[in-house]
Specification:
6 helices, 231 residues, nine-stranded mixed beta sheet, 32% helix, 26% strand, Aminopeptidase, binds coenzyme A, globular, alpha+beta, 9 strands
């Protein structure tokens, strides 16, 4: 029917990365990923790049549970849509957790790749941010003017092999464009995070704006944020 495959045991959908990463799949986010997500995000080499939420001393179980409850509810809605329709457009993406499938068939959580309507986290004025988000959320499913945002992290054990470049390509080209009707796809990354900016550039994004000393990370100097859009 589409690029999704379905787990024979659970019936859950997943997207598989192309060669040479066919042992890596993107699945819905299960609550059982609380523990492994905490372990990855508490690694300073990952957490520091995830914005104010990820930069604290500890990404706690309570934060992880809240986050997973929220994103699971979002993907559950899309999964219901996928089960009752074959073509779309669908309201979002039913998968986001990146897993490595081992030779014995077990799998391990190695990262997160969200593809959701933008909530304009870079806009500092609360009223303007709320206005933009409300306007975007009011757009009908499939509306080409919906502004989408991709965001991600990968376990240090799996970085530097091309995995996230392939994962972003897969989720955009195999699902976002054909089944969500996504046209306007944005992301952001801190200046000084060349890996993230390169993942996006290798997927057709360009830097559209650089917000100098914009994000308060609780340090002496605010951090500069690059905004990117897929062209
Ligand atoms: C950013 C991140 C997702 C990249 O994932 P990845 O799978 O390691 O990236 P890839 O292997 O696909 O690399 C893509 C390109 O970036 C380059 N790159 C990756 N990490 C780099 C680094 N630290 N410095 C410079 N270049 C880097 C790679 O060499 C590759 O370029 P090439 O193909 O020309 O060699 C991963 O490093 C990560 O999770 N970092 C911490 C969290 C984070 O930064 N999230 C994004 C927040 S905006």
């Amino acid at each position: 029917m589409n690029a999704l495959e379905f787990n024979a045991a659970t019936g859950e959908p997943f997207l598989r990365l192309p060669a040479p990463f066919t042992n890596i799949i993107i699945t819905p986010p299960p609550m059982s990923d609380v523990e492994p997500s905490i372990a990855i995000l508490n690694n300073p080499a990952v957490g520091i790049w995830m914005g104010p939420m990820g930069a604290g001393p500890a990404y706690t179980a309570s934060k992880a549970e809240q986050w997973l409850t929220k994103v699971k509810a979002e993907t559950d809605i899309v999964m219901q849509e996928v089960r009752s329709a074959t073509s779309g457009p669908f309201s979002g993406c039913p998968v986001r957790h990146i897993r490595e499938v081992r030779e014995d068939g077990t799998d391990v959580f190695i990262g997160d790749l969200g593809f959701a309507r933008s909530s304009w986290t870079e806009v500092l004025d609360a009223d303007e941010k709320a206005r933009l988000a409300a306007e975007n959320n009011a757009r009908a499913v499939g509306d080409p003017d919906i502004v989408w945002h991709v965001g991600y992290y990968l376990a240090p054990s799996h970085q530097g092999r091309g995995v996230m470049t392939a994962a972003v390509k897969t989720i955009i080209t195999q699902w976002g464009i054909p089944y969500m009707g996504a046209k306007c796809i944005r992301s952001s990354a801190f200046e000084g995070n060349p890996g993230s900016i390169k993942v996006l550039e290798k997927n057709g994004f360009v830097i559209t704006d650089t917000l100098v000393e914009h994000v308060d990370m609780g340090k002496a100097k605010k951090w500069t944020l690059c905004l990117l859009e897929r062209v």
